[in-house]
Every structure is written in structure tokens, then in C-alpha cells.
Amino acid sequence: MMKVGCLLLLLSVIVIASTTSAVLLGGWSPIENVNDKEVVEIANFAISEYDKRSGATLTLVKVIKGETQVVGGYNYRLVLAANDNKNYEAVVFDAPWEHVRNLTSFDPIIIHA
């Protein structure tokens, strides 16, 4: 009976550990410095690509906040302020070693204080 209890405990620990690892590997991590040169470059790319696709003429005012996710490259989820006094959430996939950068989404958002 004691062996069955130990086995169940061990199995529980393995399941919890594997679930936690899966969440951490694909999870989003906050960007500490949104003024970093690379982050601003990604933000400008997002706005430029959005302008090409939509015919808009937005320019970046600032990056408000952002997160990254490791996924065979990097996803950047950025909240941007633009010159039209609106905020946008942009998601950009970047794999610089493959010379790949794509705008995945670009949507207006309302930031609640």
C-alpha cells in the first residue's frame, strides 16, 4: 500500500513539473526596457508594415509596454502610442538569424487607467 502512495506522489510531481515547464517555455515575459533600440526598431517596423497594408500614415510616438515570447524565434507583443492619439497592440514575429520579420496583428486598443 505504501508503494502505491509513493508512486502516486511521484507521478503527481512529474505531471506538475511537466505542466509548469510547458507554461514557462511558451509564456510571455515583460520587456524591462521598452526604449531599447531593438524594441523601438520592432515597433517602427510594425507601424511601417501596418501603413503599407492599410494605406494609413501613422508614426510611432512611443512604446508604452511590451512582452516577448520564445517560439522558434521571438514574438513581440507591444502596446504603441501613435501620432493619431490612439494606442495599438502590435504582434511581430522576428527570427533575425533567418532574416524573417512579420507583422502578425495590429489592432487599436483602449488603455484603462
From TrEMBL:
Residues 1-17 form the signal peptide. Residues 23-109 form the Cystatin domain. It comes from the Eukaryota. Gene3D superfamilies: 3.10.450.10. GO terms for molecular function: cysteine-type endopeptidase inhibitor activity. Pfam families: SQAPI (PF16845). SUPFAM superfamilies: Cystatin/monellin. InterPro entries: Cystatin_dom (IPR000010), Cystatin_sf (IPR046350). Keywords: Protease inhibitor, Signal, Thiol protease inhibitor. This is Cystatin domain-containing protein. It comes from Crotalaria pallida.
